[in-house]
């Protein structure tokens, strides 16, 4: 079992440091955002299982020859209040750390879900009070009276909404607006807020872990690209790219607009998934389109300036829509699929074969 514990530890280190750095710096995810998103999810899942599994298996070594038998023996010793021969303080500490880490991650995930749902309900109430239906629209789109160009979707268990600002309606033409609305509805349809919530939970559980922040940022961009791909079925690429660029680089008028564009929220509209310039605040329980950004989970992260926001979520998407960058070949796509499946299966295989 020591070999299994060491192998899981090595795998956890690889998944926690070099592999995420390489993936975040790669160019190919822009050409296959769905595959890249699946790979990020497999890295996060396999990394957590490997990290906890390595500690657990190491601590179980004195209890039995295999993890399953050792777990049964551990239960018996806990009930009897005894320790087996060969048990050490290091092993007991490893078991305790594995239990604490697993509980911390799961409880933090649950707390993040509850907090996000509470914020979304509050936001739905505010939107019902402070917005009005979009004229000649039967899909539930709401309009808020705000100068900044903002668009976001607000998911919910029983009701969802797409919210636009008057500043956005003044800025974009009819085709560009159709692209924006299609983008936001894609977020709702594909349940992107759940993906973002999982990575936000990982980041908030391990705020000192730089890779968690890197993963959250990369995933936010990928879900924007996935929504862009849905919007491309409604409008042409250049129209959508123009809309993204216009919203992402729109001049800021007034303190309220400045707050939204720089990552705050429009007055009274915190907690959405924003595409109007705010990766938080207005994006806390939905998706915001500030060039169409996403962060729907109560994240209070701040982008220092509109230029930073544009560089992070706008420019890569505009370049992609304008056809810049190479397409991932079929062989590369197959390799990503195999890697994704392999990462999910490898920790389980190591544990079973121990």
Automatic annotation (TrEMBL):
Q: Which GO terms describe its molecular function?
A: metal ion binding; metalloendopeptidase activity
Domain Peptidase M48 spans what residues? 139-205
InterPro entries (alphabetical):
Beta-lactam_resp_regulator, Peptidase_M48
Keywords, comma-separated and alphabetical: Hydrolase, Membrane, Metal-binding, Metalloprotease, Protease, Transmembrane, Transmembrane helix, Zinc
Membrane-spanning segments: 40-61, 68-86, 92-114, 327-352
User: Could you say which cofactors this protein requires?
Assistant: Zn(2+)
Q: Quote any Pfam family the record assigns.
A: Peptidase_M48
Task: Share an example GO biological-process annotation for this protein.
Answer: proteolysis
Note describing how the cofactor binds: Binds 1 zinc ion per subunit.
Claim: Hydrolase is one of the keywords in the record: yes
Family to which this protein belongs: Belongs to the peptidase M48 family.
What is the name of this protein?
Answer: Peptidase M48
The answer to keyword Cytoplasm applying to this record is no
């Amino acid at each position: 079992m020591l070999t299994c514990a060491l192998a899981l530890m090595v795998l956890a280190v690889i998944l926690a440091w070099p592999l995420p750095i390489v993936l975040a710096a790669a160019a190919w995810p822009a050409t296959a955002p769905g595959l890249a998103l699946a790979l990020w999810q497999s890295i996060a899942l396999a990394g957590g299982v490997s990290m906890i599994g390595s500690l657990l298996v190491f601590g179980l070594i004195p209890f039995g020859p295999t993890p399953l038998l050792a777990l049964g023996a551990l239960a018996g010793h806990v009930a009897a209040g005894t320790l087996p021969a060969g048990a050490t303080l290091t092993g007991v500490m490893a078991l305790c750390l594995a239990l604490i880490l697993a509980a911390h991650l799961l409880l933090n995930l649950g707390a993040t879900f509850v907090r996000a749902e509470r914020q979304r309900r509050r936001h739905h109430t505010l939107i019902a009070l402070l917005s009005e239906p979009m004229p000649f629209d039967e899909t539930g789109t709401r309009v808020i009276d705000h100068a900044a160009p903002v668009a976001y979707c607000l998911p919910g268990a029983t009701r969802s909404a797409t919210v636009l600002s008057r500043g956005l309606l003044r800025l974009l033409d009819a085709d560009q607006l159709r692209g924006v609305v299609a983008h936001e509805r894609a977020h709702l349809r594909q349940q992107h807020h759940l993906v973002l919530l999982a990575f936000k939970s990982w980041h908030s559980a391990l705020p000192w872990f730089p890779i968690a922040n890197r993963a959250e940022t990369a995933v936010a961009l990928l879900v924007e690209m996935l929504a862009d791909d849905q919007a491309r079925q409604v409008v042409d690429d250049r129209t959508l790219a123009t809309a993204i660029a216009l919203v992402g680089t729109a001049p800021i008028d007034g303190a309220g607009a400045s707050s939204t564009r720089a990552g705050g929220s429009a007055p009274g509209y915190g907690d959405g998934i924003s595409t109007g310039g705010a990766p938080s605040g207005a994006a806390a329980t939905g998706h915001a389109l500030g060039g169409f950004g996403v962060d729907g989970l109560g994240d209070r992260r701040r982008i220092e300036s509109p230029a930073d926001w544009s560089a992070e979520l706008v420019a890569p998407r505009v370049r992609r829509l304008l056809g810049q960058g190479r397409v991932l070949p079929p062989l590369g796509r197959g390799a990503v699929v195999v890697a994704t499946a392999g990462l999910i299966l490898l920790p389980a295989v190591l544990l079973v074969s121990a």
